[in-house]
Structure formats: structure tokens, C-alpha cells
């Protein structure tokens, strides 16, 4: 790895972020659909859904955040695919820069862009009545889990961006990920679901992540969900990183 890895990554990150801020509609668009879902479920369906919380937005917010992240990483795949097709990768590789910095710049851009979208969603949730008694360590834990989840899905997006045959294929892989929160504890407790659906909901990554964030926001004792959530995120991250770097080596060889 080049000794200039960090400097090269910072320069390429700056390039990507300039593109983001020149078309801030990307961040806004990523936030709009989750916000629309939050408004719909709180003000239309919320009165009919029993979750044991006084304010449904408190229950709903963690799942909405995960939907926003799953939507946002589609843009990472599209940006990477566009760079591959435009020939900019070949130009980068002709320069004396660390090759891995090209991928890491896209990964860090995803973290920043998704973080900005989550801030927008959080501000809207506060306007809708979201309140939390979470302490500073709890907030840091929530941020850490969301960042780890974003990082894991971003490396999945890198695989899609490197291997897709079209721009639609690059972004389309995220649709199943966006759908996962709907079959989890994000909108209703899993105890209300029929047997097979409940079994799936309780054994997929979103439920453990949502449960952990809900407990942190409510200052409830953290059970085993946090370890399950971390295991899912780290497992996906390691596997996705391995296959993404392998796909990258094939593309540049």
C-alpha cells in the first residue's frame, strides 16, 4: 500500500464531496422517501398500531434510519459505476496514487452523505415529537451502530458498482435491502406477526439493530440484541470487503 494512501484518499474524497454538494438533491432525495414513510406511518397508521410506546415516532425512527441508509448506498454504487464507465479509473491508475484509495474515497463519501441524510431525518423526527432520554454514551453507541451498518452496506454497494452491467443494475441491488425493515420489528413488534413471518423477522439483521437502537434511545437495559447486531454488521462487512476488493483487483488487472 502506498505511503500516500491517506493523502490520496483525502484528495479523492474531496473530489467526491464536491460532486455531492454541487447536486445536494442526492442527499435530499435520499431523505425524502424515509421522511414520507415516517409521516405516513405516524399520522395515518400510527393510531391503529400498538407498540407500547406513547409516541409512535419514537418506536419508528430507528427503522426509518435504516431505510434511509439502504436507499443512500444505491447512489454509492451508481457513482462508482459511472466512474468506471467514464474512464476516470484508468486516469487515476496512471497516476502515482494508492489504488485502494479510489475505493475508500467512495466508501467515506457514502458515510458522510448518509450521515447528512440521517441528520435531516432526525430533525424532522424532532419536529414530529421524537424525544429521548439517551445519555451521551448511548448516543455515541447509536451513531457507532449506524456507521457500522452504513459501512457494511456500502461495501455491498461497491460490489454492485464494480460488477453491474448497467446503471440501473448498479442502483437496483438496494431494493431488497430497503424492503428488509418492513419485515422486522421496525414498524410493529414481531410478536404480532404470524409464525413463519415472525421467524424470519426475528432472525434477520434489521430486527436486532432496530431493537438495540430503540433500547439505547429509551435507556432500557441492553440485552443480547446488541451482540447479534454487531455480529451481523461485522460479518456482512468482512464478507463484502473481501468480495469487493477481489472484484476490484479483477477490474484493474
Automatic annotation (TrEMBL):
- Every copy of the ABC transmembrane type-2 domain together lies at 25-251
TM spans (from-to): 27-47, 59-81, 102-127, 139-161, 173-192, 226-248
**Localized where?**
Cell membrane; Membrane
Q: Which residues form a coiled coil?
A: none
Q: Which UniProt keywords apply?
A: Antibiotic resistance, Cell membrane, Membrane, Transmembrane, Transmembrane helix, Transport
- The protein's predominant localisation is membrane
Q: Which domain of life is it from?
A: Bacteria
Membrane topology per record: Multi-pass membrane protein
Question: Record's family?
Answer: Belongs to the ABC-2 integral membrane protein family.
Q: What is this protein called?
A: Transport permease protein
Q: Which species?
A: Arthrobacter gyeryongensis
Amino acid at each position: 500500500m502506498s505511503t500516500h494512501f491517506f493523502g490520496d484518499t483525502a484528495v479523492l474524497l474531496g473530489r467526491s464531496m464536491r460532486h455531492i454538494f454541487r447536486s445536494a438533491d442526492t442527499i435530499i432525495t435520499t431523505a425524502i422517501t424515509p421522511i414520507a414513510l415516517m409521516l405516513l406511518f405516524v399520522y395515518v397508521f400510527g393510531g391503529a398500531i400498538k407498540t407500547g410506546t406513547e409516541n409512535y415516532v419514537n418506536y419508528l425512527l430507528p427503522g426509518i434510519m435504516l431505510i434511509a441508509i439502504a436507499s443512500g448506498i444505491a447512489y454509492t454504487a451508481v457513482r462508482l459505476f459511472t466512474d468506471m464507465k467514464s474512464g476516470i479509473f484508468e486516469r487515476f491508475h496512471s497516476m502515482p496514487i494508492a489504488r485502494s484509495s479510489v475505493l475508500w474515497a467512495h466508501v467515506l463519501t457514502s458515510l458522510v452523505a448518509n450521515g447528512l441524510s440521517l441528520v435531516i431525518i432526525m430533525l424532522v423526527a424532532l419536529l414530529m415529537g421524537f424525544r429521548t432520554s439517551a445519555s451521551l454514551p448511548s448516543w455515541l453507541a447509536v451513531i457507532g451502530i449506524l456507521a457500522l451498518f452504513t459501512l457494511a452496506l456500502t461495501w455491498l454497494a461497491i460490489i454492485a458498482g464494480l460488477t453491474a452491467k448497467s446503471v440501473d443494475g448498479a442502483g437496483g441491488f438496494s431494493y431488497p435491502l430497503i424492503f428488509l425493515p418492513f419485515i422486522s420489528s421496525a414498524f410493529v413488534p414481531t410478536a404480532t406477526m404470524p409464525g413463519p413471518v415472525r421467524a424470519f423477522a426475528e432472525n434477520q439483521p434489521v430486527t436486532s439493530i432496530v431493537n438495540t437502537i430503540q433500547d439505547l434511545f429509551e435507556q432500557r437495559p441492553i440485552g443480547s440484541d446488541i451482540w447479534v447486531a454487531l455480529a451481523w454488521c461485522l460479518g456482512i462487512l468482512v464478507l463484502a470487503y473481501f468480495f469487493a476488493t477481489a472484484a476490484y483487483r479483477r477490474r484493474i488487472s
